[in-house]
């Protein structure tokens, strides 16, 4: 990615402002708010209240600078849709949005700040979320045959595991570079950090599923490799991407989709969940990065996690505990699942994101809390 050779502030993922990784271990990223925004059609004082459903400003460009299309006034007569302004007729919790004039981008959020809140990778905003739900009903997702016993080893040193929704993302040379999770037969969820920007030229990129091996032998039965055709970046603070497959995956005992959690659900503390990936293996007990490794880790409350990270963990993130010797995810695990079992179904509660020190002894692990973005995930799939 051009312009990223030095430690300058940049904006490769379409956030509301340039940002950078910091040299402070407790602060992974920060906005470069000292950089002034060039004059455009966004008024300096333009902002929206609450979720922006009542926003009536005149901004008509997305956070990526794409011009908006009109939203159909017949379907949303109450939203004052006479022009191609940014609006929030469906009450999207992530703020005003619009359909765009870019054929590759059905919709996107607008570069409008919430009144009194600074948006971006480390804004520190607080979004109220629900207490744990006692009973959750799922249908056909999140099912698997457990062929391996749980372990408290880490992916760094993990054991071979069965995670049929875990996807290996492949570059143009066919090499594994990140993980992902099947949330639909045509959609994989991963993290922005796996890609240089939201405008990656995808031809040659693919998703591989149906194998425990990072580099399966040619002709191995059950392996599916499907080209990627679209990348959709999530709300700027989410660090998430949705990846569309060229055609649907065939579900079987080796390939299945994981369940999405209820919107804004909090996993109870001490719930034992599972991380999976083909990432780096090193340390006192050497694992095998050529096979899919799994590790079981208990959930840690954000309050307890913030004691370690000095208040930098946001409500759109969640944590798991660490063990003596370290339990964590490393490079090439990023984008993979933190899956938690709810009765007989596995649910995608978190997405693995980079940390400055992977699998560091005594350090909790931080994940993006998927329940905060379930509405966005469903909207992306419905509009495709």
Describe the model.
By secondary structure, this protein is mainly beta. The protein has three domains: 43-117, Plasminogen Kringle 4; 164-257 and 375-383, Thrombin, subunit H; 272-370, Trypsin-like serine proteases (Thrombin, subunit H, Beta Barrel), CATH 2.40.10.10. Helices cover 5% and strands 24% of the residues. The protein is built from two helices and 19 strands. It has helices at 302-309, 374-383; strands at 19-21, 29-31, 47-48, 97-99, 107-109, 113-114, 159-160, 166-170, 176-184, 187-191, 206-209, 224-233, 240-245, 272-277, 293-300, 317-320, 337-342, 345-352, 365-369. The chain has a six-stranded antiparallel barrel with strand order 14-15-16-19-18-17. A six-stranded antiparallel β-barrel has the order 8-9-10-13-12-11. The chain is globular and about 55 Å long. Mean pLDDT is 80; it is low at 118-128, 148-160 and 281-286.
CATH topology of the largest domain: Thrombin, subunit H
The arrangement of helices and strands along the chain is EEEEEEEEEEEEEEEHEEEEH
- CATH class of the largest domain reads Mainly Beta
How would you classify the helix and strand content by structural class?
Answer: mainly beta
- The assigned CATH architecture of the largest domain is Beta Barrel
Strand count, sense and barrel status of the largest sheet are: 6 strands, antiparallel, barrel
Share of helix, binned: under 10%
Strand order within the widest beta sheet: 14-15-16-19-18-17
- Corresponding CATH superfamily of the largest domain: Trypsin-like serine proteases
> Averaged pLDDT, please?
80
What is the count of structural domains?
A: 3
- Structural Rg: 21 Å
Q: Identify the overall geometry.
A: globular
The total count of strands amounts to 19
End-to-end Cα distance: 28 Å
Unreliable runs, pLDDT <50, ≥5 residues? Answer: 118-128, 148-160, 281-286
Strand content: 15-25%
What count of helical segments does DSSP give?
Answer: 2
Pfam families: Kringle, Trypsin
Keywords: Disulfide bond, Kringle, Repeat
GO biological process, one term: proteolysis
GO molecular function: receptor tyrosine kinase binding; serine-type endopeptidase activity
């Amino acid at each position: 990615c051009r312009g990223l050779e030095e430690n300058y502030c940049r904006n490769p993922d379409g956030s509301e402002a340039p940002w950078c990784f910091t040299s402070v271990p407790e602060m992974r990223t920060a906005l470069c708010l000292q950089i002034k925004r060039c004059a455009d059609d966004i008024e300096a004082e333009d902002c929206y209240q609450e979720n922006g459903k009542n926003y009536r400003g005149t901004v008509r460009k997305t956070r990526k600078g794409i011009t908006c299309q009109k939203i159909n006034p017949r379907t949303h007569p109450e939203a004052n849709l006479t022009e191609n302004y940014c609006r929030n007729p469906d009450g999207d919790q992530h703020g005003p949005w619009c359909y765009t004039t870019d054929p590759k981008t059905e919709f996107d959020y607008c570069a409008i700040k919430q009144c009194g809140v600074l948006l971006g990778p480390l804004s520190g905003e607080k979004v109220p979320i629900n207490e744990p739900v006692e009973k959750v009903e799922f249908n056909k997702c999140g099912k698997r045959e457990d062929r391996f016993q749980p372990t408290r080893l880490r992916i760094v040193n993990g054991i071979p595991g069965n995670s049929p929704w875990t996807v290996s993302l492949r570059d143009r040379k066919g090499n594994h570079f990140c993980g992902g999770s099947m949330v639909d037969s045509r959609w994989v969820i991963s993290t922005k950090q796996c890609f240089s920007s939201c405008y990656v030229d995808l031809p040659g990129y693919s998703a591989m599923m149906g194998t425990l091996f990072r580099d399966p032998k040619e002709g191995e039965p059950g392996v599916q490799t499907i080209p990627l055709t679209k990348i959709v970046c999530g709300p700027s603070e989410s660090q998430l991407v949705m990846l569309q497959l060229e055609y649907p995956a065939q579900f079987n005992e080796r390939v299945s989709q994981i369940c999405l959690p209820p919107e804004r659900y909090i996993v109870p503390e001490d719930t034992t969940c599972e991380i999976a990936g083909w990432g780096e293996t090193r340390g006192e007990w050497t694992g095998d990065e050529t096979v899919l490794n799994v590790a079981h880790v208990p959930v840690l409350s954000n309050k307890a996690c913030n004691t370690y990270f000095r208040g930098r963990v946001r409500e759109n993130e969640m944590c798991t505990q660490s063990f003596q010797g370290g339990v964590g995810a490393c490079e090439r695990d990023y984008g993979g699942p933190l899956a938690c079992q709810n009765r007989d179904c596995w649910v995608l509660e978190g997405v693995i994101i980079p940390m400055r020190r992977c699998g560091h002894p005594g350090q909790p692990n931080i994940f993006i809390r998927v329940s905060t973005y379930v509405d966005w995930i469903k909207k992306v799939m419905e509009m495709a």
